[in-house]
Amino acid sequence: MKLDLGGLIPATVLPMTVDAQIDEAGLRRYIRHVAAAGPKALAINVDTGEGPHLWANERLRVLEIVLDEVGDRVPVIAGLGAQYTSQAADLARDFKRAGASGLLVFPISAYQGAPLDPEVAVRYHAAIGDATGLPLILFVLQPALGGVNFLPELLERLCLVTDVAAIKEASFDPQLFVRTRDAVKAARPDCVVLTGNDNFIYESFLLGAEGALIGFGAVATRQQVELIEHALAGHHEQARAIMNRLTPLVNEVFSAPVRNYRARTKAALVMQGLLDRETVREPLLPISDAERERIRTAMSFAGELDEAQTQVEMAR
C-alpha cells in the first residue's frame, strides 16, 4: 500500500477517565476533531498516546475505535513497541487485521549497548514486514528518550528492507537530522523523511523533511497542517509566521521534564473544551498549576483560545 506521508501526521493523545481507563466517548470526539483538520494520517498508540502504558488489548481497542471513526478517510499508523521479534510480528498482525495502514516501529531494548549489531535491527524490521506486508516507518529517537541514533551504515541497510516506506527522525539535533537524511536518501530515494523534532518543525523542512510525525501535532493541529503545506510549497514567510505563533507553546509543552508533555498536551486540549480531563496513566503524573498557567498563556498567544473556549474551561 502506498501512503501519502507528505504533510502532518499527528501522534494523538488518549483521553482517559478519572481512574485512567480509556475514555471511549472522549476518544471518538477528539479523533473527529483531529481528523477534520486535514492531516495526512494519524499515529495511534505511540508515546503521545501513552501506548507503552497500555495493555495489548487496550492498544487494539484504541486502534479499533479510531478506525471506526475515520473509516478510510484518513490512514492510521499504529505504533508498534515490543520486547522481542516474534511478539512484534504477532502484534503487527493484530494491527493489520484491525485495519492499520502502516506501522511506526519503535526501537527496542535489545538495541541498547554499543556497538549495535546491524543484524539485530535489520532482522527485526524484516520480520515485521514479512509478517504483514504493511508499510513500515523507521524510528530514530535520541537515547535520552530511550531510543537509538542509528549510524549511517545501519540506516542504509534498514532502508533496503522491502516494506520500509519512511523514517521518523527524532534526534532533536539538526546535524544528526542532516546526516540521517543523507544516508536515507542515498540508500533509498523514495523513503520519506519525516521530522519527529517538535522543537524545530519549520526548520526541519529547510533541512529536507518531507513530512512530520510529531506529538505536538495533537494540539493546534490545523495550524500545523497549514504550516507544513506552506513549507512544502516554498511559502516560507507564511510558514515562519505560523511557527512564530506556535513556538512559545511547543517550548512549554516540551520543556523539562519532557515526560510531562503528555499531560501538558492534554491540559491544552482541556482548555479548548476538546477533552474533559487531563488524566494520564501512572507512572506519569499531573502537572502543576504553574505549568498549566504557562500553557494557557502560550495557547492564547498561538490563537488557540477564543473567548468562548476560555469561558468553558474556566467553568470546569
Average pLDDT level? 95
Helix content: 40-55%
Could you list the spans in which at least 5 consecutive residues all have pLDDT below 50? 310-316
How large is the share of residues in beta strands?
5-15%
- Ends: how far apart? 44 Å
Order of helices and strands: EHEHEHEHEHEHEHEHHHHH
CATH architecture title = Alpha-Beta Barrel
The top level CATH class name? Alpha Beta
Enumerate the strands of the largest sheet in spatial order, edge to edge or round the barrel.
1-8-7-6-5-4-3-2
Q: How many structural units, i.e. domains? A: 1
Rg on CA atoms, Å: 18 Å
Choose one word for the global shape.
globular
Largest sheet, strands/sense/barrel: 8 strands, parallel
CATH superfamily: Aldolase class I
What oligomeric assembly is this protein in?
A: single chain
Structural class category: alpha/beta
- Annotation field: number of helices: 12
CATH domain fold name = TIM Barrel
Number of strands: 8
How is this structure best described in words?
- There is one protein chain.
- By secondary structure, the chain is α/β, with parallel strands linked by helices.
- It has twelve helices and eight strands.
- Strands 1-8-7-6-5-4-3-2 form an eight-stranded parallel sheet.
- Strand 6, helix 6 and strand 7 (192-195) form a beta-alpha-beta unit.
- The longest helix has 18 residues, at 236-253.
- The termini are far apart.
- Residues 310-316 have low confidence and may be disordered.
